[in-house]
Automatic annotation (TrEMBL):
InterPro entries: VWF_A, vWFA_dom_sf. The lineage of its organism: Eukaryota, Sar, Alveolata, Dinophyceae, Suessiales. PROSITE patterns: VWFA. It comes from Symbiodinium natans. Residues 49-226 form the VWFA domain. This is VWFA domain-containing protein.
């Protein structure tokens, strides 16, 4: 290349190349060499020759021809003739080609076994021939494709290193790159990497270490990928040299070299350089013989440093798969660990001085701040992960080795990449779809905000409208006529301009405004950020960054997730809801930047928000809350910690429902260990105004995202005393609770009987979860009811029929002795843990509907008032705040102080013994019950459950008796039949022998054979009662 540049002045050429360096540790630095697009190396390609080495073994079949056709398309990419070598038992040089058609038309020899060493050796002979002519100016690219391991001739493990050593000795200026294609797991990935390690002198960093097809059917797809990669190579080979006490690190564990050759097409190349201590600032570099100044960076750039280490990591993977000695592999890992640790220390030092601010920043600043804070540690962690993977790698399977080399070896990475490809564009595809929807919703917002503001102004009392008009006139933002027109409700361009201006701020001053304690944005300001969503497309590269760009106000919640939440969103719980607002954009920015945020009330750091439709801006907030970004993506993050696990609106309903239950709790939200009697007698304290506002807003939002008809259907189940199981469409009791709170309920919905049914269902769901977790329901119930095996009915003797179940149950003991000892199952605490949270929530629902009935208009009127402003429904807040009639658990259960222990025992026993939907429903609707379950406050119900517990022991004994009968019944029947006369024997056979049990059937038949044989009187009596097929098979001809 130096010769081709001779016509250019040296100073001009040097200006077209730049170099930067950044110190990694005291004697190691990263180097970034950039070539300007006008540099001759970018304009004048190096002469290139392809050398295709193709497997022609019998296992390849027609795929050899397919690969030949794909390789032929690459011939035009080379400037020199390209060779084709095929190998089976031996290698054959097919020819040198300059056109795709000539290579494609070439005939191939017969197929055989797999001699890879011979194939490589023959191809290298063509390389040597061309080198003899061109003298080190050609870039040779050797491409090996094979679908199986070497099985004939000298083994590559010894042959390839010898070939590589001979090449380096004979052709020191050789420029050779190696590309490996493996087809099926039968191919030898480690041999391919040994080939690269032994022969390659010019690595092609832009290509994969291996192109692997998991099956022959996918070979064409992989070859297309390879063709695209090779066709995209641009520029020429460039030689970089260092002088003085410095050298390029080209391979871990090897001595640094002062000269490297690289492909200039990317315009930028990274290297790791070892220097003498403190000499990194004085690096002397030349590109193709011309000196290039190397400028040291004063500020550490982690992306720069990690980019320089990536090629070394890639070569370390190749060496690992190629079978590098364990000692050398360990040394390579130790060297990388030293550099990665140095990078981590520098990142920590930089992050300590960085500031992080959420208040008063724009969406663009928020995303930029996140990128700045995470960029420091992301690259260092990525290097650390790669290093850990490299150190732990111990695999001999070709497919897994290929995945390790290409970065797809993590448990789900390959599947994720495949899904992304199927979705068309993967992450970028989903991001573009989100941005498109965000822009569509953002375009609707200005008009929606105007409608919301007009509606709020029109609902204001006359005195408030007059004050608003005075504020607008005093601020100078409008004339008196425009302000008056707006307050009169007139619609015109001038009033629209006012609404887009300062009206929102004046209204917030007049009515009072809530704000996020993170961004300090009011609801209106947060919604206004959506006007800038057009910038998100080029600023955000992931769904998380889009969630940081815009969002909504919400209430901090503590979510307890389970693995089952992805399938059933009600499987999670909301432990607490804070009444201080935050915003999703700031929260996601902080969390993704690893900043911990604590709510003003104190407690655990917040991680999730409950996003609600805001009655202050009903139309605008509904548009935002129903955007794909918040409805699907953010909901999926809250429930599943994944961007793409949204399964439907039920997820949002579950969040609202669980949040309502949590928000209704007093400061001490769960049973605090008080004695059971005292805990059941304590009524929850009155609600604070902040809690009332929160509860009302949850109900309001639920009405906006949930069909009112579905809520009414759920409430009718309570009113009609219907079953409340999963099979009846009640996914979880909290869903029913939300429907009761947010719908206009019937008169009997909150009567004692349906409320008790709801609490029993809560216990049944908890018991069902316990059983799925491995609890033995019947054993647990028998234990705390004091039921012993001795008190259960016994079986009749073996061979005697058992009486009817109902007869045994009628005579069964119904006594119980509640075990409340320290070692026993604490059924009272178990029930309290399940139902105590529902007591304040049910009280809120009851008082809310009492208030709505008194003020008339129901929820429809309350909705309008909440949208008008706090002044319009302050009577509701005052009523709920002043209420002192809270019910205790004892009152909700409808029991007495003396009966409490028995009632709790009944609830626990009934929940465990009838824990699933079928066992709790009547037969007429598809269940197992002949009659409804008993009232848990009735003493006879617990006695019946005690009988059921003992009958469970009895049924177990019957089963054991039947198993014993299966073992011994045949012999007992045979013995009885042998001594019986013909009449008695006939009675034993009954009218049809195939109606007998298996032991009786074969016992009678064997007795007949023993007494007279197949033609005896007993055999004839047996056969006369048997079916035709049995007679034909077992009766001998007379």
């Amino acid at each position: 290349m130096a010769q081709s540049c001779g016509s250019e002045p040296a100073s001009a050429l040097a200006a077209l190349a730049t170099c930067r360096s950044v110190a990694i540790d005291e004697d190691t630095c990263a180097l970034d060499i950039r070539l300007h697009s006008e540099h001759p190396a970018q304009q004048q390609p190096t002469p290139t020759s392809m050398h295709f080495v193709l497997d022609n073994s019998g296992s390849m079949g027609s795929n050899t021809r397919n690969a030949q056709s794909c390789f032929a398309r690459l011939v035009s990419s080379a400037t020199e003739p390209s060779s084709l070598t095929v190998f089976s038992n031996e290698a054959t040089h097919i020819g040198n080609f300059t056109t795709a058609s000539s290579m494609q038309a070439a005939s191939l020899p017969r197929q055989g076994q797999t001699n890879i060493t011979a194939g490589i050796q023959t191809a290298l002979m063509e390389v040597r021939k061309q080198e003899a002519i061109n003298g080190g100016t050609t870039h040779h690219v050797l491409i090996l494709l094979s679908d199986g391991a070497h099985n004939v001739g000298p083994h590559p493990s010894t042959g390839l290193p010898q070939l590589g050593e001979a090449l380096r000795n004979d052709l020191p200026r050789l420029r050779l790159s190696v590309v490996v294609v493996g087809v099926t797991s039968s191919s030898d990935t480690s041999m391919g990497m040994l080939l690269k390690r032994s022969l390659e002198t010019v690595p092609l960093e832009s290509l994969e270490p291996i192109y692997f097809a998991s099956s022959a059917a996918k070979m064409s797809e992989v070859l297309v990928e390879l063709t695209e990669g090779l066709s995209s190579l641009r520029g020429s080979l460039v030689k970089a040299q260092l002088t003085g006490p410095a050298g390029f690190v080209t391979s871990l564990g090897a001595e640094p070299v002062q000269e490297v050759t690289f492909m200039s097409g990317s315009g930028e190349q990274f290297f790791v350089v070892k220097t003498a201590a403190q000499s990194a600032k004085a690096l002397e570099l030349s590109i193709d013989g011309l000196p290039v100044p190397c400028l040291p960076m004063n500020v550490f750039d982690v992306e720069f440093a990690s980019s320089a280490l990536q090629p070394l990591l890639s070569r370390a993977r190749v060496a690992r798969v190629a079978g590098q000695a364990e000692g050398l592999a360990r040394a390579a890992v130790e060297q990388l660990d030293q550099w990665v640790s140095a990078i981590e220390r520098k990142c920590e030092q930089q992050s300590e001085g960085a500031t992080f601010r959420l208040a008063g920043v724009s969406p663009q600043q928020r995303v930029a701040q996140h990128k700045s804070s995470t960029r420091l540690l992301h690259h260092a962690r990525e290097l650390r992960n790669h290093l850990t993977e490299l150190e732990a790698f111990r695999v001999n399977n070709s497919a897994e080795q290929a995945a390790f080399l290409t970065g797809k070896s993590s448990k789900y990475a390959g599947k994720a990449l495949k899904r992304a490809a199927q979705r068309g564009g993967g992450v970028q595809g989903s991001v573009s779809g989100l941005v498109e929807d965000m822009c569509a919703q953002g375009a609707k917002l200005p008009a929606a905000l105007r409608r919301d503001l007009r509606a709020k102004i029109s609902a204001l009392p006359e005195t408030m409208r007059q004050r608003l008009q005075e504020c607008l006139e005093a601020s100078g933002s409008s004339g008196s006529s425009e302000a008056a027109s707006l307050c009169r409700g007139e619609v015109s361009p001038s009033t629209d301009a006012l609404l887009d201006g300062q009206v929102m701020e004046h209204l917030q001053t007049l009515l009072g405004a809530r704000q996020s304690y993170l961004s300090l944005n009011t609801p209106g300001q947060q919604l206004s950020e959506w006007r800038t969503v057009a910038d998100a497309g080029h600023l955000c590269g992931s769904g998380y960054e889009l969630l940081m760009f815009v969002g909504s106000l919400g209430y901090p919640i503590e979510v307890r997730r389970r693995d089952a939440t992805q399938m059933n969103p009600f499987a999670m719980e909301v432990a607490n809801v804070h009444s201080t607002l935050a915003d999703t954009a700031s929260l996601l920015c902080a969390l993704q930047s690893e900043q911990e945020l604590t709510p003003p009330e104190g407690g655990k750091p917040i991680e999730d928000l409950l996003v609600l439709v805001d009655p202050d801006f009903p139309q605008a907030s509904r548009i935002v809350v129903n955007s794909v970004l918040l409805r699907e993506t953010y909901t999926s993050v809250v429930l599943c910690r994944d961007l793409h696990m949204y399964t439907g609106n039920l997820m949002r309903i579950a969040l609202h429902a669980h949040a309502l239950l949590a928000a209704a709790q007093p400061v001490q939200r769960e049973w605090d260990g008080l004695p059971v009697q005292e805990a059941a007698l304590v009524a929850p304290p009155p609600f604070t105004e902040a809690r009332i506002q929160l509860l009302l807003r949850i109900c309001y939002s639920a009405r906006k995202i949930w069909q009112l008809d579905e809520m009414a259907d759920l409430c009718s189940k309570m009113e009609n005393w219907e079953d409340l199981t999963t099979a009846d469409g009640v996914e979880h009791p909290v869903k029913l609770l939300l429907a009761l709170a947010a719908a206009d309920v019937g008169k009997g919905c909150l009567d004692p009987v349906p409320v008790l049914m709801l609490l029993n269902e809560v216990c049944a769901r908890k018991a069902h979860d316990d059983v799925k977790a491995g609890v033995k329901a019947e054993s647990r119930v028998r234990a705390f009811l004091g039921i012993t095996a001795e008190s259960a009915p016994t079986c009749a003797a073996l061979g005697e029929a058992e009486p009817l179940y109902e007869v045994v149950a009628a005579d069964c003991c119904a006594d119980y002795d509640l075990d409340t000892g320290a070692a026993a199952f604490d059924f009272q605490s178990w029930v309290l843990d399940a139902v105590l949270r529902y007591v304040p929530a049910l009280h809120f629902v009851r008082q809310l509907h009492a208030c709505l009935a008194h003020r008339q208009g129901g929820w429809a009127k309350l909705e309008q008032d909440m949208e008008a402003g706090p002044w319009a429904y302050e009577d509701v807040v005052a009523h709920l705040k002043a209420d002192q009639s809270s019910q205790s658990l004892l009152e909700c259960l409808g029991t007495t102080h003396l009966q409490l222990q028995r009632t709790l025992a009944t609830m626990a026993a009934q929940a465990y013994l009838y824990g699933n939907s079928h066992s709790r429903r009547l037969k007429e609707v598809g269940g197992d019950l002949e009659q409804p379950l008993g009232n848990v406050t009735d003493g006879d119900t617990l006695r019946a459950l005690a009988v059921k517990g003992r009958m469970g022991i009895y049924l177990g004994r019957v089963q054991e008796k039947m198993r014993e009968w299966q073992r011994e019944g045949t012999e007992m029947t045979r013995a009885r039949a042998v001594v019986a006369d013909l009449g008695q024997y006939s009675d034993l056979c009954s009218s049809h022998v195939h109606g007998l049990s298996k032991p009786e059937f074969w016992g009678l038949w064997r007795a007949a054979l023993a007494d007279g044989g197949p033609n005896g009187q007993k055999a004839l009596a047996f056969l006369s009662r048997a079916n035709h097929d049995f007679c034909n098979k077992h009766r001998l001809p007379r």
